[in-house]
Amino acid sequence: MESSSVRQGLGNAQRLDTGLKIDPRLVLASHLLQLNQTELEQAIETELNENPALDRLQEDVEPISEEMVFRAIAPQELKPSGDDPEFRRSLPNDEGGLSWLDLAVGEPQTTEHLRAQLLSALPAKLRKVGEYLVESLDPRGYLGEPLEEVALHCECSIEEAGLALAALQRCNPAGVGARSVQECLLLQLLRGDTLEHKLAAKIVKNYLDDFVSRKTMRIARRYGVMPDVVQRAFAEILSLNPYPCEGEPGSLAWASRSVGVCPDLVLNRAEAGWQVEVKGPDETLLKVSRAYYRRQTELNERQRPPRDEKRHVDHFVQRARDFISCVEQRRRTMRAIGEYLVVSQEGFVSTGDYAFLRPLTRSQVAEDLDLHESTVSRATADKFVQLATGEVVSFDVFFKPALRVQKMIEGILATENPTNPLSDERIAELLAEKGVIVARRTVNKYRDRTKLLSSRKRRTA
Known about the structure:
The chain has helices spanning 2-19, 24-33, 37-50, 66-73, 85-89, 110-118, 127-136, 147-154, 158-169, 181-189, 195-206, 208-212, 216-223, 227-238, 290-301, 307-344, 346-351, 362-369, 373-380, 401-414, 424-433, 440-449, 455-460; strands spanning 54-56, 265-270, 273-278, 286-288, 384-386, 392-394. By secondary structure, it is mostly helical. Strand 5 (384-386) and strand 6 form a beta hairpin. The longest helix is centred in the C-terminal third of the chain and has 38 residues, at 307-344. Mean pLDDT is 76; it is low at 89-108, 249-259, 449-455 and 457-461.
């Protein structure tokens, strides 16, 4: 009786084990998905050492550029011809004797690009001011020095400094030379001539707070337009770059940007639209060993191949294919999440302003992308995203609803009058004006969480 019970129990356990068997490829895919790019590189190196059927192609250290091709087959095309009448006609002929050749540089840099545009458009007496303005730009492309100081340093009038600044602000990239984010956006919008551009410029100039709070109907009533026109104007504002020199070739920010965490996902805006780049090893550089693939083909063509050798070759070839497939699947999943973020969080991704951050959950992302929630969790855990502004943030930023309120409170307190600090109740009112409704005690809780002092202590600090 007891032996039959034992046999029945063993049979049930065996059936249970069979039912819970998991595909090893799913385990591998889940494991690779949760790795950051550094850990993924280590996993690939480990697999290359353990699997003789997996090979890695060598990346070109220095890819061939168009200039290298021209230099090899037509070096004369790289040199401007002094006999060309169009070349002579393009040279400035004023008393300063400025030549485009004086502005030529070996590598395209943002500062040199600005000099080439600005100095050739200025009269000789203002070129010193133009040089000073270009050198005074911060890494984002903003001018942080008042015109009075520019005029004092360059020994010119404020009016002449203003003329040079106006010429700089007409240069590319649009928005360069601005003295605030608002002016930067206006400089870009003023270059458009559509109804949406004109309306967007008025919104940025007069009702920026309403734009941040997405008060579409209020703006529509003020200007007597349909709500969809306002929405298109909002879209124009969101498409702008608040940091014009970020991401430019030879960017001003390149030398000053500190090395921190490595982003696993880079979201960048280009002329053709949003670009989502998954950083880390590329699966296209991995391949099945040619020798193993050839040997597998030969063994499959035999009627009676050596059993042990065929088992060995088949095992490692399939293992290599599964590994490459899982690395590719990881990249597809990461890219899909990145593309989702640029659509659902475009305002925040474009500007880095936490006021634009919308409430979002991993389950919502999973549902919209038809993925399992655990897949999204693995893909975003302990990883970082580089925004269009160049700022690197944790993936967790997108999934913490309280973070937006905390950052907005920090922004409000950063601009308050130190002699008359704001109370928690007044902060809650200011948040309500921006479309964020929170109670006074909630403000107190967030302030305590971020170690910010109360109004009484800030006054005495």
